[in-house]
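We close this part of the discussion by returning to an individual protein. Part of our work consisted of pairing the sequence of a single chain with a tokenised description of its backbone. What the numbers capture is local backbone geometry rather than side-chain detail. The amino acid sequence and the backbone structure tokens for this protein are reproduced below.
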Amino acid sequence: MDSRSLAAALLLLFGLATVFAQTSAPGKACETKNGTSCEECLQNVTCLWCITTKMCVTYPGRTILPPHALCPLNNARWGLCWMNFQTLIITLAVIGGIIIIAFLVCLFCCCKCENFGSKRSEAKMEKQANKTRTKQEERRAEMKQRHEEVRKKYGLSGPNPYSKF
């Protein structure tokens, strides 16, 4: 994407924010610039230039796109004289689609990588638990063997004489 398209998209975003932030004053500032040039008309953010009629009209702030009766989209200019509304809409739609797709891909990758990492850590923890369990069983076996040796040494390996009571 070249820098002119990016600049146009940013200009549109800032321009729309300005238009929606301003109150729709009933003033005829744009209509007074009829018959002038596109550049002179578009100095005011609320103005829309129609190439076919060479008229400067107030941008209809209540609708996102200007109605076809006011000026066809391919002949309407707003913000920049060299970019028409159709190009602007297509550019913004493509940029928006790319941003949404990039967000979804990042979200998918993050979730997948997180699950992959947790599976790896779970396997590591399970391996550690198995190792600990094996060591504990070995210690128990050694302890039992020592106890048996002590019992044999003192003659306690037979049946317990107190078990009758």
Remarks:
- The first strand starts at residue 47 and ends at 50.
- The chain has a mean pLDDT of 81.
